[in-house]
Amino acid sequence: MPTLPWTVPNPPPQGRQTVVMASRLEVRRLADVPRFFLRSLAAWRQVRKAPGAYGASLIAQPTKRTFWTLSAWESKEALYTYAKTEPHKSIMTGLRSVMRTSTFTQWDSTTDDLPISWDEARKRLQEQKAQQDGLSGTQ
């Protein structure tokens, strides 16, 4: 399973509040994996230069058509600015048609807890998915 290890674009100050974002992204077909992977590398290059990014990691599971992201940010504003800036903005809209499922979650932490473990991120993503499934099941 290819993993891009935790990278620190901007060294975080000690004892500061941080926003953590994790995602699980699954494409529809194996044929979509190369395109998704290449686009995710462009987003990875962008996050490595993004103002307010305290750290990021990516796990690719190509045979499962699944990609995982984990990042920490100085603020929600810094995270949202990254998401709305090119190339990330075009990547998100350009890949919508190939996505099977996507789960996103955010939580507050402190810079003293960085890097966040993948076990913690997966646990929070599972909780978010269960909550989403529960909400869609009640409609």
Tags for this entry?
139 residues; five-stranded antiparallel β-sheet; alpha+beta; 37% helix; single chain; 32% strand
Structure summary:
The chain is an alpha+beta fold and about 140 residues long.
Structural description of this entry:
It contains four helices and five strands; from the N terminus they run E-E-H-E-E-H-H-E-H. Strands 1-3-4-2-5 form a five-stranded antiparallel β-sheet, sandwiched between helices. Strand 3 and strand 4 form a beta hairpin.
The share of residues in helices is: 25-40%
Distance between the termini: 37 Å
Instruction: Tell me the number of helical segments per DSSP (H or I, 4 or more residues long).
Output: 4
Radius of gyration: 15 Å
Order of helices and strands: EEHEEHHEH
Overall pLDDT level? 94
Shape: globular
| Total E-strand runs | 5
Strand content: 25-35%
Structural class: alpha+beta
SSE arrangement:
Elements: E1 3-7, E2 17-27, H1 33-47, E3 53-61, E4 66-73, H2 76-83, H3 88-95, E5 99-110, H4 118-137
Antiparallel strand pairs: 1-3, 2-4, 2-5, 3-4
